[in-house]
Amino acid sequence: MFPSARSITSGVHFVNSVRHSSNVRLSGRRVMKTIKMGKARPAIFHQFETFVELSDGSVVKRRSQAPKDEIRMISDQRSSPMWNPTRDDLDDTDPNAVGKVDRFRKRFGGFDGAEEASEKLSFQERRKQANEQKENLFDLLGENATEVKGGKVQPKWAKKKK
Questions:
Q1: Which of 47, 55, 104, 150 is the most exposed place for a label (fewest CB within 10 A)?
Q2: Residue 6, CB half-sphere, CA atoms under 13 Å: how many?
Q3: E strand or H helix at 51
Q4: Which residues have CB under 8 Å from 71's CB, separation 6+?
Q5: Residue 52: its pLDDT value, please?
Q6: Mapping DSSP to helix (H, G, I), strand (E, B) and coil, where does residue 109 land?
Q7: Residues 6 or more apart from 4 whose CB is under 8 A from it?
Q8: Does the structure show a pLDDT above 80 at 50?
Q9: What are the backbone dihedrals phi and psi of residue 127, each rounded to the nearest 5 degrees, phi first?
Q10: What's the pLDDT band for 28 if we cut at 50, 70, 90?
C-alpha cells in the first residue's frame, strides 16, 4: 500500500509520509491524562444502613458495606470478658460455649468422662484453671528468650521541609 519512502515520478522527488504509532489520530477519542503520584482519587464504596442486634438484645443502627438489613451478633463487647473484666457472670473458660458447638457438646460430650469432671468444678475454679493455663502458655513462649539490653534507639525522623 505504501511504497518506499521516496518515489520518483517524472523527475520530481516526492517523500511519502510514513505512519508511526505516535502520529495516529484517535478519531476524536479523549486521551486519558496520566495520574500523578498521590493524586489518585480513593475508591468510593456504597454504604448500607444496617441494624446490629447485640448479644444483650440492644439494637444499634450502623452503616456497613454488606447489603444486609439486620445483623445479629453472638459474641460482642457486651458478652466478652476482655471488655468486661469485672463481670463474674461471663464465662471465658470455653470460647466455643455459644451456638451449635455448645449444643453438640452438651448432647454428646459425656462419653469420654471429661464433661463430668468439669461439671464438678465451680465457676471460679474453672476460671482459675483457665488463667493458670494462660500463664503456663506465656511461660512456655518466653522459655528460651533473653532480654536484649543496650544498642541504639532509632531517633525520630526529621520532618521533611516542603
A1: 150
A2: 5
A3: strand 48-53
A4: 50, 51, 52, 53, 64
A5: 92
A6: helix
A7: 16
A8: yes
A9: -65, -40
A10: low
* pLDDT tens track for 62-72: 999 889 999 88
In this structure, which amino acid lies at residue 84? N
C-alpha cell at 80: 466478652
Q: Are 33 and 52 in contact (CB under 8 A)?
A: no
Residue 44 is which amino acid? I
Task: Say which residue the cell 454428646 belongs to.
Answer: 108
Over residues 96-108, the pLDDT tens digits come to 566 667 777 777 7
Q: What are the grid coordinates assigned to 149, written together? A: 539490653
Contact 50/64 with Cβ under 8 angstroms?
yes
Instruction: Compare 42 and 20 and report the one with higher pLDDT.
Output: 42
**Res 114: pLDDT:** 54
